[in-house]
Amino acid sequence: MESLTIGSLLDVMGELFSDEISIAVANTTEYVYYQPSKRIDLKIRPGDLLKEGTIAYKAIADNQKVSEFINRDVFGVPYHGMAVPFQHEGKLQGCVLAISPAFTDGKSVVTIKTNDGWIPTPFSDVKYIEVKDRKTHVYAKELSGTHKNTLQEFEYILPRELFVRCHRSFIVNVHHIREIYPDTHSTFVLAMDDQTRIPVSQSYSSYFRRLLDF
């Protein structure tokens, strides 16, 4: 199979899982293909060497399937992954990886930093989270403040049945959406129950519609 055809096939595979799972392919020393998902992006680039401690490195080193949790020390974010090695004429050639977010269990609050201190706030009270001016702002019932987490980090700890990423700058609690309005270029505007208007960007519109089933 020609390399162009293989690349096209990998792109199609990436599109199949683009909402949740990132796909990567590596030879025995470096990554040769990477398709990030909307839920997790390890910022891998073709040509990057395999890092010790990653599932790709372990799969190649042991020449066997690896499936496990990898903490944030390797790529800066935690993830669950599976790597399956492949061979040609009996010789190890590389591995294929499926990378999914690592959801943190046991948390039920977001601890918001205010001018007076820190206030633990239940997930259900958080309306939306926004990144602006290089800070992460959390808006809840009768309370707002900042948090040290990035939006990507919040995606790993917030319950998926409540929170949806709708824009590179916003995560919203679906229970606080009052109405959804169509906007130009197949996008939407969310009217929140506190009168705030939040955009749904084109890159997240299909993902957003699928999760809310409309």
What shape does the CA trace take? Answer: elongated
Question: Which strands sit side by side, in order, in the main sheet?
Answer: 2-1-5-4-3
From the alpha-carbon coordinates, what is the Rg to the nearest angstrom? 20 Å
Give a quick account of the main beta sheet: strands, pairing sense, barrel closure: 5 strands, antiparallel
Q: Approximately how much beta-strand content do the residues carry?
A: 35-45%
- CATH architecture classification name of the largest domain: Beta Barrel
The CATH topology of the largest domain is what? OB fold (Dihydrolipoamide Acetyltransferase, E2P)
What would CATH call the class of the largest domain? Mainly Beta
Number of helices, where a helix is a run of at least 4 consecutive DSSP H or I residues: 5
Structural class: alpha+beta
* Total count of strands: 15
pLDDT below 50 for ≥5 consecutive residues: which ranges?
Answer: none
State the distance separating the first and last CA atoms.
Answer: 40 Å
Number of individual domains: 2
Structural description of this entry:
The protein is elongated. It has 2 domains: 3-101, PAS domain (Beta-Lactamase); 109-212, OB fold (Dihydrolipoamide Acetyltransferase, E2P) (Beta Barrel). The strands form 4 sheets. A 5-stranded antiparallel sheet has the order 2-1-5-4-3, sandwiched between helices. It has a 5-stranded antiparallel sheet with strand order 10-9-8-12-11. Strands 13-14-15 form a 3-stranded antiparallel sheet. The chain has helices at 3-16, 55-62, 72-75, 151-157, 202-212, and strands at 22-27, 31-35, 66-70, 79-88, 91-101, 109-113, 118-122, 126-132, 135-140, 143-147, 163-167, 170-173, 177-182, 188-192, 197-200. 21% of the residues lie in helices and 42% in strands.
